[in-house]
Fold this protein.
Amino acid sequence: MHIPASRSQEVELLTFADALERREGSDSYDREKWIYVPDFYSEYRYILGTVGKRPLITIGINPSTARPDALDNTLKSVERIAAGNGFDSFIMFNVYAQRATNPDHMDRELNEALHRENMLAFRWVLERAGESPCVWAAWGTIVEKRAWLKQCLSDMVREGDRFGAGWVHAGKPSAKGHPHHPLYLKKDSLIEPFDMEKYLRSL
């Protein structure tokens, strides 16, 4: 379990650029296999994924305890579904970068600085994902936990549009139209197109 030690506004924040630069000198994990930013366990995480030329960019709400060579059950499911749909790697990204195993423990108010750095991380991922990046909406009903998550999602869609990103989902959406969370999906689940603009209008 990861329970935030404090509001993220009270945590010393490493910018994405600084976290990325630090990662280049890391020997704490296999950098030929993993992308992990920051490269140490902290109160926030920008990126966790595997190295490849065609990643399935997976979007959850917020990170929990996973790290290289220690994936949680959600990330294990993401890895299986990415491989089953023909991707050579996966990137786990989140609408909000604060770690919290229980989303009820997320910040009550949006940390604008953390969100800004998270969007820079998202842009970095999109830039390196090849032509027409595939972005998997995979957050389930947790998006209802905080009203400001819609703003974060809107910013992500706008950023994705700059790179021609295509949004997909897997499994049956919830009654309110939220995309299915990866944890309880069948391992052979197939991804399908997801209308993010329509979804955002419904939030």
User: Anything to note?
Assistant: Helices lie at 16-23, 73-84, 112-127, 149-162, 196-202. The longest helix spans residues 112-127. The mean pLDDT is 96.
